[in-house]
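Entry 12.
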Amino acid sequence: MLNGHEWQQLHAAFLSNSQTLMCRADECLSHLELISDDRDAMECLLSTLQHLAREAHTHGIATVCGFARQLHDLLDSATAARQLPPKALPALKRCFVLMSWQLELIDPRSGSLTLDESEERDLLNAFACQCGLGARKENRGITPSWQVNPEQCDVPLT
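Predicted 3D structure (tokens):
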């Protein structure tokens, strides 16, 4: 088992790279706020989330890995129409704010991050609803699925 100093030395690159990836995601999101159908910006967001999920998995940060993967899957479904609804962008921004906050809370000595995932779930549901994908179904520990039924959205759309 690594002590805190060893974890920080081995994973310092993750802490730095994750911040770089979040800055890239923010830039892509800002671009989408200006040009909502920019396919390059959408692809950049998808690849950034995929990269962040891989990095978090490699470094044992399960919370960030799971959140990034779920957000990637939702964004991928939402962008199938080549354009995110403008009302979905603030919900996506809130997801990125939470993810950045999570990255800040990773203990640099141990790499641990224990959080209640209810805020993630609420933000993902809000984003799904804004994209017209409906609310997330719980599948007893299985990767979440998304239903296409906006009437079942129980998250405020503001």
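Annotation: The longest strand covers residues 136-137. The first helix runs from residue 4 to 34.
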